[in-house]
Write a structure and sequence with these properties.
mainly beta, Immunoglobulin-like, 5 domains, 6-stranded mixed β-sheet, 37 strands, 0% helix, 43% strand, elongated
């Protein structure tokens, strides 16, 4: 009879228990437990396969005796075991159990198995390779991972060291560090013509490099094969004054748009970035992102010696400024010319009033005649396509006596019906009705942006009627639209 056992695990013992009922109430005169030869010479368990068999015979034990299969790496001074459900076949004293390796088992090349009961233990099981000590591993992690933040190079000072580390889960979700029971073998790669050198076996997540070379790490599964290994890192030895290079991800010059370019320095232990000789607060990583041109430098500490690299970063973009005074108070009948100054030679210009594009205004200057929220946009249409925007607010004299305009000249400097500011709020409702009685506008918080569509003039200048309902009362009047 075969009983398949699902194991749970403890810190010190692996126990496979079998309770046998022989149908006899008397003890045998001689007790014996005889392990049979195992059908494997190692166990390389994992999520894809974790079933193994062990067979033994017994004699001289009464019904109800509990047998345990024990696992140990040091001659059973420390034992791993787990309690199982009982199985019994009164007709046979040979027992075969199917078991699974605990998923948190600390792997080793020197595990042994035996069968025990209270006050009595068998000899060790022998593998089919005729060894009573053999590898057992659970390959919890079986895929590639990264070290050194996936950087392929590093450096340290002559006579010093550099610590390579397996990246944690925050850096690489496939990190084996999520399985605490694993250990690691660190290697120096000697190229295609020679075998790699094991520089630290059964080690931890870090390795201190003291000599130049190409290094990588494999998860320690003994003689079991797996795909759990890291990228390679070339580690060099640096001296004080050694050169540091800075690379721009978008090249140099770069297109100053979006999130900008990423500057990357030669790998070291710590970094201090500067722009035009001034330390950049908080810029202490190997990389630094910027959208601005300038002379950038980085001081790299290799662990006892330092070096500095510099890049004169140029931009394919442009510079632009505007001479608008935000919040300027425009007097009745006054106009103000606002001008954009730029070093771009092929720029295009757009002007907006209350988020509406002002038609036919495509030069670097605009004459402001009405109050409102303005936006100016200057763009490069070719090469490094980018743009800059400037916003400003023009205020005006306002008050209950302010005049509501009754004429709109679409070709003039004021192509919209711009009412006094005291009526531009969420408590005021503005309605505009055509001469045919059609409601063409019905809003609150009107911002001086009507008309937004083309007006059909036909043979006469169209007339509209407005109604303004506010906390101070209601105002009505007419609006004549002329070209």
């Amino acid at each position: 009879m075969i009983q398949k056992i699902t194991l749970s695990f403890f810190k010190v013992l692996l126990l496979f228990s079998i309770i046998f009922f022989t149908g006899s109430s008397s003890y045998a005169q001689s007790k014996s437990i005889n392990p049979q030869v195992l059908d494997f010479d190692r166990i390389c368990a994992g999520p894809g396969g974790n079933e193994y068999n062990a067979t033994f015979t017994y004699s001289g034990f009464p019904a109800g005796t509990v047998f345990e299969v024990e696992l140990s790496t040091n001659n059973f001074v420390n034992i791993v075991k787990t309690t199982t459900i009982s199985v019994s076949d009164p007709a046979s004293n040979q027992k075969r159990i199917t078991f699974a390796v605990p998923i948190d088992l600390v792997g080793s090349d020197t595990y042994s198995l035996r069968v025990s009961t209270t006050g009595f233990s068998s000899g060790k099981f022998v593998s089919f390779g005729f060894s009573n000590s053999f590898p057992i591993y659970y390959r919890a992690h079986d895929r590639q991972y990264t070290i050194n933040n996936f950087n392929g190079s590093a450096a340290f000072c002559a006579g010093g060291s550099f610590t390579l580390s397996i990246d944690d889960v925050a850096t690489n979700p496939d990190s084996p560090l999520q399985y605490p029971s694993l250990s690691y073998n660190w290697f120096r790669d000697n190229g295609e013509t020679a075998l790699p050198t094991l520089v630290q076996g059964n080690g931890g997540k870090d390795y201190k490099v003291t000599s130049p070379g190409v290094y990588y790490v494999e998860t320690n599964y003994g003689t079991c094969t797996s795909g759990s290994y890291s990228n390679r890192v070339t580690v060099t030895s640096a001296a004080s004054g050694s050169s540091v290079s800075i690379e721009s991800s978008l090249g140099n010059p770069f297109c100053a748009s979006g999130s900008g370019t990423i500057l990357t320095a030669t790998a070291g232990n710590s970094y201090v970035w500067k722009k035009n000789g001034t330390v950049i607060a908080g810029a202490t990583n190997r990389t630094y992102s910027t959208n601005e041109s300038g002379i950038y430098s980085v001081d790299v500490d290799f662990g006892g010696c330092k070096a500095t690299g510099t890049i004169d970063l140029k931009s394919n973009g442009f510079e632009a400024t505007i001479d608008a005074e935000d919040g300027y108070k425009l007097s009745e009948g006054e106009t103000v010319t606002v001008t954009i100054t730029t070093d771009a030679t092929d720029a295009t210009f757009e002007w907006y009033l209350n988020d509406n594009l002002i038609p036919n205004e495509t030069t670097r200057s605009y004459v402001v005649a009405v109050k409102g929220n303005y936006k100016a946009k200057v763009s490069l249409a070719s090469g490094c396509v980018s743009s800059k925007e400037f916003t400003f607010r023009i205020n005006g004299e306002s008050g209950p006596s302010s005049v509501i305009p009754n004429i709109i000249k679409l070709s003039g400097m004021n192509p919209y019906w711009n009412i006094p500011d005291e009526y531009k709020n969420a408590n005021t409702k503005v309605m505009i009705i055509s001469s045919n009685g059609d409601m063409v506008l019905d809003v609150v918080n009107y911002q001086g942006d009507w008309p937004q569509n083309n007006i059909d003039f036909k043979n006469v200048n169209p007339v509209y009627y407005y109604v303004i309902q506010s906390d101070t009362g209601e105002k009505k009047g007419s609006i004549t639209v002329i070209k």
